[in-house]
From TrEMBL:
Residue ranges occupied by any VOC domain in the UniProt entry: 3-131
Family label: Belongs to the methylmalonyl-CoA epimerase family.
GO MF terms held by the record: metal ion binding; methylmalonyl-CoA epimerase activity
Keyword Mitochondrion: no
Record protein name field: Methylmalonyl-CoA epimerase
InterPro entries in the cross-refs: Glyas_Bleomycin-R_OHBP_Dase, MeMalonyl-CoA_epimerase, MMCE/EMCE_epimerase, VOC_core
UniProt organism field: Pedobacter rhizosphaerae
GO terms classed as biological process: L-methylmalonyl-CoA metabolic process
């Protein structure tokens, strides 16, 4: 794993939260994106080398809506950048970690992603992210 790629924060209202984080971080939201497959709207902020992703569920059955219902708004996951997501997934499986998906899937911000079950990581949902390279 190379670095923390972003911190994901679950929110009830993307519209209200974008305003809060623009003021807090003193920077504009650089991108919003609907990820239909995950039933989530996202908004991204960059501050220095770091990124923050806000996540709003678009349906009651979305993972984000369920998370907020159970735990309230707050930190949802920490994402780490990797060079080779397939190799990293295999390494983690060999180390005994449970992955939440067997294959990487298309995520927000031009990334292929995979999640590691929080029961194996002291309650923290971990996301692996690999930039999709366009030829």
């Amino acid at each position: 794993m190379n670095k923390i790629e972003h911190i994901g924060i679950a929110v009830n209202s993307l519209e209200k939260s974008i305003d809060v984080y623009q003021k807090l971080l003193n920077t504009d939201c650089y991108k919003t994106e609907l990820v239909v497959s995950e039933l989530v709207n996202t908004a991204f902020f960059k501050t220095g080398e770091n990124k923050v992703e806000l996540l709003e569920g678009t349906a009651p059955e979305s993972a984000i809506a369920k998370f907020i219902e159970k735990k309230g708004e707050g930190i949802h996951h920490i994402a780490f950048a990797v060079d080779d997501i397939l190799a990293e997934m295999e390494r983690l499986k060999q180390e005994g970690f449970v992955l939440l998906n067997e294959q990487p899937k298309k995520g927000a911000d031009n990334k292929m992603v995979c999640f590691v079950h929080p029961k194996d990581t002291n309650g923290v949902l971990i996301e692996l992210c690999q930039e999709i390279k366009w030829i």
